[in-house]
Design a protein that fits this description.
about 200 residues; two-stranded antiparallel ribbon
């Protein structure tokens, strides 16, 4: 699905947000909206977007596009499981948030191995994929993903801190920014779908 008019404006604002910042690499979900957003940013930098299947959104299966109220009514067992343990609740015909986290986290850790800590790397992905990364990076259980917020075209930033005297993959992430949307001022308000 392509970006709508608001999405195009938000992608342009996001590109301007990163215009004067160094960017070593841009990785994107291959979905059209994410890829179009990533290409907007890349248009202002001497890098090509590289797609990664592991950055796709969580597979919502039969619930893709279903509103929250309808989900409660049509899938009460799933909804109850999701509310009690979002990490292990399998979307009917889809995947769990734990599975999403396993694939996104593996990719993030490959980026840690492939890039020096001072190389700014941008990931363009989706809500649940991003929540899963942030939860793991911050040591939060997936059941707490709802304590985070990630609006469309918002920026969240992590930095990798390598533990001295250990292998390069040993260390931890530090949160630098969460859900920054100031670059969207005057463009269009990010919205969260209502129930």
């Amino acid at each position: 699905m392509p970006l709508n008019e608001v999405g195009v404006a938000q992608a342009g604002a996001l590109a301007k947000r990163f215009r004067d910042e160094p960017v070593a690499a841009i990785y994107s979900s291959p979905s059209r909206r994410a890829l179009d957003t990533a290409n907007s940013i890349a248009g202002l930098h001497p890098v090509k977007v590289e797609t990664r299947e592991d950055l796709l959104e969580m597979d919502l299966g039969e619930l893709d596009g279903v509103k929250l109220g309808e989900m409660r009514d049509k899938f009460p067992d799933f909804f109850a499981h999701w509310m009690s343990d979002a990490g292990t609740a399998r979307f009917p015909g889809g995947e769990t948030l734990e599975e999403t986290q396993a694939r996104t986290w593996g990719t993030v850790m490959r980026f840690v191995q492939d890039h020096a800590p001072e190389e700014p790397v941008l990931l363009v992905s989706h809500a649940f994929a991003t929540y899963s990364i942030l939860c793991r990076a911050l040591g939060m259980p997936l059941s707490n993903y709802g304590r985070l917020r990630q609006d469309p075209a918002a920026v969240s930033a992590l930095t990798w801190r390598h533990r001295l005297g250990t292998d390069p993959g040993e260390g931890n992430f530090v949160l630098l920014a969460s859900n920054q949307t100031h670059h969207l001022d005057g463009v269009a308000e990010p919205t969260i779908p209502s129930s």
